[in-house]
Amino acid sequence: MIARVCLTVALLLATSANAQDATTPDAPTSAATLSSKRDYSDNAQRDLPVTCKEGDLERQAGKTMGQVFGADWPIQPTPSAPDSHSPADATSMGKMVWPRGLEGQRGLVVLAVLVGSDGKPLRAEPLCATANGYDRSAQRSAMGGTYKPALVDGTPITSPAIVVVSYQGSIKRRNRRTDATD
Asked: Considering its fold, how many domains does the chain have in total?
């Protein structure tokens, strides 16, 4: 029987001990270049290569986010001002189950979830992971989640949300605005 997963979900710009935290001394890549730190409501980000923390398993090596989602992610309108766009954001995650054979082991997956202008998840693609075996479980949870769509000039658009799923043994959910525990 597959055990229920304990998880920590962190979102874009969230910090986690294992999440792509470029502020640690062993992380030579700057925060601005990690895919988990980018605002994909900005069209300029779509053609930058997917970048993981050094030592992570790269699931989309050599690809840009535009290549990961292809025609499913249309070019978005240009914002009227630099600060008139906001990224897609997860408001809840779907049910998680621990992958069979990995119960009690730690793992982390960084996903790009393509969120439609209606806030519904369209696709979830793993970008980076600390260990093998967690991608599908994290994808299923992300596809069962709810999202706030990205906005450009107040209009909802289709855009990726970056979701970091950490299997650690406690149930917590953090996003960039709050540190609430469930």
From this structure: 1
Q: For the chain, how many helices (H) and strands (E)?
A: 2, 11
Domain of 62, in residue numbers: 9-173
Task: Read off the pLDDT band of 31 (50, 70, 90).
Answer: low
Over the stretch 49-87, which tens digit does the pLDDT of each residue have?
Answer: 999 999 999 999 999 999 999 999 999 999 999 889 999
Read off the pTM.
0.76
Q: Is residue 181 part of a domain?
A: no
Q: Which contacts of 138-143 are long-range, i.e. CB under 8 A and separated by 24 or more positions?
A: 138/96, 138/109, 138/111, 138/163, 138/165, 139/111, 140/94, 140/96, 140/97, 141/7, 141/93, 141/94, 141/95, 141/96, 141/165, 142/90, 142/93, 142/94, 142/111, 142/113, 143/94, 143/113
Please identify which residue in the block is written with the tokens 């229920």: 4
For the domain that residue 153 is a member of, what is the CATH number? 3.30.2420.10
Retrieve residue 146's tokens. Answer: 């709810």
Answer whether residue 1 is part of any domain.
Answer: no
